[in-house]
Design goal:
The protein is of the alpha+beta class and about 120 residues long. β5, α3 and β6 form a beta-alpha-beta unit.
Length: about 120
């Protein structure tokens, strides 16, 4: 899928896309958007680069292979709990590896991620 802006070059400017005037020369207003899902991209990267680092967190690392394993495990648990395509899954986690695992696992199950903050007060 290709996303095209109405303006092909930043020098032309546009009322509907005023940010284009700030693009450096040579920066395209058109981008290629892959059609693959992010879980598919993760699986492909895990196959290509299983030992490469996917996540660094407080001095520890998780490889692409390990990340894919954890995502598959989380997806399996969601399915066992009855989560189906289109369901909403609320995630209340800080910015940590478990959040990435839960997001990818939820997407892989076909569900919609509903991120919430662990810092919310009870009334929120």
């Amino acid at each position: 899928m290709t996303v095209h802006n109405e303006v092909a070059h930043p020098a032309r400017g546009a009322d509907s896309q005023p940010w284009l005037q700030w693009y450096e020369p040579g920066i395209s207003a058109t981008i290629e958007v892959p059609s693959d899902s992010l879980p598919h991209v993760l699986a492909r990267n895990a196959a290509r680069y299983p030992t490469r680092t996917a996540i660094r967190y407080f001095g520890r690392t998780i490889t692409y292979h390990r990340l894919e394993e954890e995502v598959n495990r989380f997806t399996s648990v969601l399915r066992q709990l009855g989560v189906r395509k289109g369901d909403r899954v609320a995630l209340m986690l800080p910015n940590c590896p478990q959040m990435a695992i839960a997001i990818y696992g939820t997407w892989q199950a076909g569900a919609v991620v509903v991120p919430t903050s662990p810092l919310y007060s009870p009334s929120e």
